[in-house]
Amino acid sequence: MRKSILTLGIAAVLTGVLATCSMAYAADDELAQIQESGKLKVGVEGTYPPYTYHDDNGELTGFDVEVAKAIADKLGVEADFTESDWDSLLAGIDSGRLDTVINAVSITPEREEKYDFAGPYFYITQQIVVAKDNDDIVDMASLDGKKVANTATTAYLDILEDAGASLVQISTADEAVSLIESGRADFTTFNSVVFNEYLQQHPDANLKVAFVIPDVVDTYAVPIKKGETALYDAIQNAIDELKEDGTLSKLSEDYFGTDFTQPQDENAATTDTASEDATTESTDEN
Question: What is the CATH number of the domain that holds 72?
Fold first, then answer.
């Protein structure tokens, strides 16, 4: 009887040890699972040109789509894309439905609490966009008491709320523009390429750039669930190689006409972007 109890005790201990080891293995072996499946599960919006969108043939394309494919290739797998609204994308990483999101994801302190960010691989400024007849909004101080149309998870919500603005929640850039044109919101945020893309598709849009958010250069990176160190290292190495061999620079030149993959001086970036005509700017939801 005592032997049976001892045997059961040892078995229980061994089971616990194996379970702990299995949990540790699973927590830090996402890369092995990805390579075994042959797929890197990537979340994108698919409605955010020129980063992720559908071409005239209905094919998913864009700068970030090509970046994701290049990273997956470095890992020896294919990129498997899942499209969703922006506000639900990062939750896909939390649930395990996605391995990562490559869709103009900004690094923020709040996000860094949950994810490790490989990169950055993209640097860009942000603008405040208003209706053409709006001359009240000219700087950060003038945002006090105004309404901003943006997503609830935008990287700039804290900055805008600190300036006194209140959020009118939207899901897409089209919704933000509609709210501004109807007077239900006063402004939104666009980065310096997305607004340009929007105006090319909507040349009659009643919008203009009021000013560039000062002292800010937005950085896009690849979020990885904390603890997945092997996957993080592999993606970071892939990004480093894609920078070194010129792949990222070429993709940026192809999609934007300039190289946004190199760090920018905040003051120089602000000056350069502010000097552009208002018809060459865009909305950053992320």
Answer: 3.40.190.10
